[in-house]
Write a structure and sequence with these properties.
The chain crosses the membrane at residues 12-29, 35-56, 77-98, 132-150, 155-172, 184-206, 218-236, 256-273, 293-310, 322-340. With 360 residues, the chain is mainly α. Helices cover 76% and strands 0% of the residues. The chain has helices at 5-23, 28-31, 40-56, 63-94, 96-101, 107-111, 113-121, 132-153, 155-169, 174-180, 193-208, 211-218, 220-237, 245-249, 256-273, 285-290, 292-305, 307-359. Helix 4 (63-94) packs parallel to helix 17, helix 13 packs across helix 15 (256-273) and helix 17 (292-305) packs antiparallel against helix 18.
């Protein structure tokens, strides 16, 4: 299957936005839910489902291979998450100044280290910025069942059941309840799995068959209505109306206004991409998308390492200091991955050339 470089570019842009949003500064004014009540996380989860349909949908005739491929990818994401999650408290122990700076963030490790590590391993404890990768790992495990169900009963029944789970997620978070039973200081992070699975399922269903979306976009009146709705969400998001914006911006349960806002934007984005060739890409941004797992994992580590610096930059220089720091963290999160992969490619090429020379 020919790689769609547009998707890698969009995914790279979403990862870049996440990095900037996690640090702050003036750049965040242009990246933090700018288009309405939608963040980069919604786009990334939806796109993950879409890509999974394209990549793993090829193995629907071989269930064993389908399960093997998705499990390996999920386990790879799990390993990256665990590596970062366990490295952070280890660094805090090895570097005394960090113990003070990270005390609040790493409090459970200080109180009950063994219990916290065990809960980390079973994904029942996730610290700041450490909740997206587990969400993605769980969704990948769900991927084979969704693909097989869509093939057997169709996309509409699968989406209906998925939406039912989304509704339940507005009232309860089972994973959070299980985690909190071990202590109030434990939690599964920001994202309610049974709510957010709907975006993944929606992306997966569209990745398998998007004919109904094609028909929707062909209706100019419907497309104009969607565009107007997007403008309303945008205007309301940036208005000075006396509303509880903190409630509207909250995304943990993926409330209905955020879900609708995302779906409307997704329709417009799909329409715009119709006129963009598959081989279109933005240099380096596409590279971030191709290596999003490595870069996202590294950025979490870099953010924690710079946490004491961020506090000082914020107190001394305010938003300007955080802006400069966000650029530094962005560079340190992306460039090492680029250098490492270039080194691996060069080493592999030299090895093959040496092997060919020896065979001659």
């Amino acid at each position: 299957m020919e790689r769609d470089r547009r998707i890698d570019t969009i995914r790279g842009l979403l990862v870049a936005i996440m990095i900037i949003d996690h640090v702050g500064g003036y750049l965040k004014l242009a990246t933090a839910q700018t288009l309405g009540y939608v963040s980069a996380a919604e786009g990334f989860v939806f796109l993950s489902g879409f890509v999974c349909a394209k990549v793993y949908g090829r193995y629907l005739d071989n269930t064993r291979q389908l399960l093997t491929k998705t499990f390996r990818r999920s386990f790879l994401i799990y390993r990256y998450h665990i590596a970062v999650a366990l490295l952070l408290p280890l660094l805090a122990l090895l570097i005394p100044p960090y113990q003070r700076s990270w005390m609040e963030l790493l409090h459970p490790y200080d109180v009950a280290p063994l219990k916290t590590v065990l809960l980390d391993l079973v994904l029942l404890h996730q610290g700041d910025y450490l909740d997206i990768l587990p969400l993605y790992a769980w969704l990948l495990l769900l991927c084979p069942a969704l693909l097989l169900l869509v093939r057997r009963v169709g996309a509409v029944p699968v989406l209906a059941v998925s939406f039912g789970f989304w509704v339940a997620g507005q009232f309860v978070d089972p994973m959070q309840l299980i985690a909190s039973s071990f202590g109030a200081q434990y939690g599964t992070g920001f994202f309610n799995l049974i709510s957010w699975q709907f975006l993944f399922t929606l992306g997966l269903c569209l990745g398998i068959s998007g004919q109904w979306l094609d028909r929707l976009c062909a209706n100019k009146m419907m497309l104009a209505t969607v565009a107007v709705c997007c403008l309303v969400f945008f205007a309301f998001r940036h208005s000075d109306l006396a509303v509880n914006h903190s409630l509207l911006v909250d995304r943990s349960k993926l409330p209905i206004h955020r879900l609708l806002n995302f779906c409307f934007l997704m329709v417009l984005l799909r329409q715009m991409l119709q006129n963009v060739p598959r081989d279109f890409f933005v240099p380096y941004v596409e590279y971030i998308g191709r290596h999003s797992l490595q870069i996202f994992s590294l950025h979490v580590l870099v953010i924690y390492l710079f946490r004491p610096v961020a506090w000082r930059m914020d107190s001394m220089f305010g938003e300007a200091g955080l802006t400069a720091l966000s650029l530094v963290i962005f560079a340190l999160s992306t460039l090492p991955v680029y250098v490492y992969n270039r080194y691996r490619q060069t080493s592999s090429l030299l090895f093959r050339q040496g092997l060919d020379s020896g065979l001659r």
